[in-house]
Design brief:
Rossmann fold; seven-stranded parallel sheet; binds adenosine monophosphate; 2 domains; alpha/beta; 43% helix
Length: 422
């Protein structure tokens, strides 16, 4: 399948060509046609599947076709949960619209509102926004939403997790009734289904991966380890695997800072990103990571949302997430756009319950091993033996040694595959 079979206009194909994309990803193949036909779409897709282009390309074509002269009005609106994701979607919109007469702007909180107001005043066709700032701008009469024809809710599950339900409802109430709607979400809880039913009109369902299942190309593994040994094991994995880039998830902001300090002490350059960091600090950390200037990014779930790190080969769950769905989001950061990846979870005795919940969600058990020198002293109580934990006892060491070679070959493999940075 090639892009020109999807009904996209030549100017968009030219932009895709410039990006170096030759083939649509599965979600792009499935979604672009129906969106171009004017259908509402409910998309099941996480970051890394190419979902941004799947909604941006047809949105641009539709708005470009309908464009009339005169001052530009906001006709396309994309809502995202985080500033980072908003910025990324905006970058995509800019890149794909290079050869057509459509303009876009991005607005999010945490930065001065005045430049955003000035840009909006000049008139734009598309606005990419986080909900809170959009409502602020509307409250200050800096944006008119009554002409919106095309609405996208991106990462809707995360917007609800972050408490944006009311803001979303308020925004929906400001939009004209007649419009085309798209909703993308990695998971489908009751709440998401209710939200979708509330404003999508006979949507077509398109799926990038089956509901709530972890992407198959990602090798998932659990290392049982004591809490006190997690930092040392992390260092060992990074050194011995010669990992050049790894994303590590912690549960708390303090945990992220603590681990980052420990890694720095062991001469592994790292940055921590979380909600307490300023927007500038987050942007700088992400840019440094993307340029390869820092080897490790330590992130909390919310801060990591929307990070666009192509072909990231390794993710470590330093602590398991409280919400099982977050596990799927986290490991979705590896194995992007078809590349293989590895997601390792360091699990201490008190996290075995969370592990079970995750395995239930993804519908399979994750192979569990122990690493030589890091065998956990804390065992679960005897009442109900934990299958996961004891099953491979005694095999763990040799397995780990065997795997080392694999990591190295994987890394080489990844480096060969990695595209030149944009
Ligand atoms: P997304 O899921 O939209 O965040 O996209 C994930 C990554 O895949 C981004 O780095 C995109 O630039 C890239 N990408 C999107 N579509 C394609 C494609 N058709 N071919 C190759 N890479 C793509």
């Amino acid at each position: 399948m090639s892009f020109d079979k999807l009904g996209l206009q030549s100017e968009l194909l030219k932009a895709l060509d410039k990006k170096g994309y030759t083939e649509p990803s599965p979600i792009q193949s499935k979604a672009i046609g129906p969106i171009l036909q004017g259908r509402d779409v409910l998309g099941s897709a996480q970051t890394g599947t190419g979902k941004t282009a799947a909604f941006t390309l047809p949105m641009l074509q539709i708005l470009n076709k309908a464009r009339q002269g005169g001052k530009r009005k906001v006709r396309g609106l994309v809502l995202t949960p985080t500033r980072e994701l908003a910025a990324q979607v905006y970058d995509n919109v800019r890149a794909y619209s290079e050869f057509i007469d459509i303009t876009a702007s991005v607005v999010f909180g945490g930065v001065n509102i005045n430049p955003q107001k000035r840009t909006l005043k000049q008139g734009v066709d598309i606005v990419v926004a986080t909900p809170g700032r959009l409502l602020d701008l509307h409250g200050q009469k800096a944006i008119n939403l009554s002409e919106v024809e095309f609405l996208v809710l991106d990462e809707a599950d995360r917007m609800l997790d972050m408490g944006f339900q009311r803001d979303i409802n308020r925004i929906l109430a400001l939009l004209p009734k007649k419009r085309q709607n798209l909703l993308f979400s990695a998971t489908f809880s009751k709440e998401i289904k209710a939200l979708a039913n509330g404003f999508l009109d006979r949507p077509i369902l398109v799926e990038a991966t089956p509901e709530n299942t972890a992407v198959e190309v990602i090798a998932q593994k659990v290392y049982r380890v004591d809490k006190s040994d997690k930092a040392a094991l992390t260092v060992k994995l990074i050194y011995e695997g010669e990992w050049s880039q790894v994303l590590i998830f912690t549960r708390t902001k303090h945990g992220a800072d603590r681990l980052s300090r420990k890694l720095d002490k062991r001469k592994i350059p790292s940055f921590a990103i979380h909600g307490n960091k300023s927007q500038g600090a987050r942007t700088r950390a992400l840019a440094a990571f993307k340029k390869g200037e820092c080897r490790v990014l330590v992130a909390t779930d919310i801060a990591a949302r929307g990070l666009d790190i192509p072909l990231l080969p390794h993710v470590i769950n330093y602590e398991l997430p409280q919400v099982p769905e977050d596990y799927v989001h986290r490991i979705g950061r590896t194995g992007r756009a078809g590349a293989s990846g590895e997601a390792i979870s360091l699990v201490e005795v008190n996290e075995l319950k969370q592990l079970k919940a995750i395995e239930k969600l993804i519908g399979k058990s994750i192979p569990s091993e122990e690493v030589e020198g890091f065998e956990p002293a804390d065992k679960p109580s005897e009442k109900k033996p934990q299958q996961q934990n004891n099953r491979r006892k005694g095999q763990g060491n040799s397995k780990h040694k065997k795997k080392k070679g694999n990591w190295e070959s994987k890394k080489k493999n990844w480096e060969q595959k990695r595209p030149k940075s944009k």
